[in-house]
Write a structure and sequence with these properties.
2 domains, 78% helix, Serine Threonine Protein Phosphatase 5, Tetratricopeptide repeat
């Protein structure tokens, strides 16, 4: 009987934890957000949203290795991800100056095609709440800028120039749409 009650309450408990997580993230209480994410994961180890939120919280705390582990788990749960997890892994490896790995993850996001920027923004905003959600408005431009630097650091100037053209086009198109 107790087992049945706990199973039926599981979804409710996880939902309530996500409400707290949203508040902690919005007010930059990242250690508390990390703690709640770990509790959710203990209850539901396959919860992609909790792993993603954990990765974002680690990134916000500049704990890059923790973010790599969390976003790596997201890709393990969803190997075809071409959104937030791939973008954040690219960013994390960029920060570690592992430009070859960063390129691989950035290319995954770009693989979404011409609407990659819009889809990436939507994916990031799904996991970001409050003020930090609005930081992702130019995420594709950020990705392309880091990708240019990765190619420059690895000596591939032709790819850097190719991505620079895409960056310039995307920047100009964003100005027309947003301003």
């Amino acid at each position: 009987m107790v087992g049945v009650i706990l199973i039926s309450l599981r979804s409710f408990l996880i939902g309530q934890m996500f409400v707290r997580l949203t508040s902690y993230s919005a007010y930059s209480y990242y250690n508390d957000a990390i703690r709640i994410c770990k509790k959710i994961i203990a209850i539901d180890p396959g919860n992609k949203q909790a792993w993603t939120a954990l990765g974002f919280s680690y990134m916000d705390e500049a704990h890059v290795d923790g973010a790599i582990r969390a976003f790596g788990k997201v890709l393990e749960l969803n190997p075809h991800d071409q959104g937030a997890a791939s973008f954040e892994l690219g960013q994390a490896y960029f920060l570690k100056k592992d430009y070859v790995r960063a390129i691989d993850y950035f290319k995954r996001v770009r693989g979404r095609g011409p609407r990659a920027g819009v889809l990436l923004d939507a994916d990031i905003l799904r996991y970001r709440h409050g003020v930090s959600g609005f930081q992702s408005v130019h995420s594709m431009r950020i990705l392309l800028g880091m990708l240019i630097k990765c190619y420059q650091q690895t000596g591939d100037t032709l790819k850097a120039a190719e991505v620079q053209k895409e960056y310039d086009f995307y920047k100009n198109e964003h100005k027309k749409i947003l301003f």
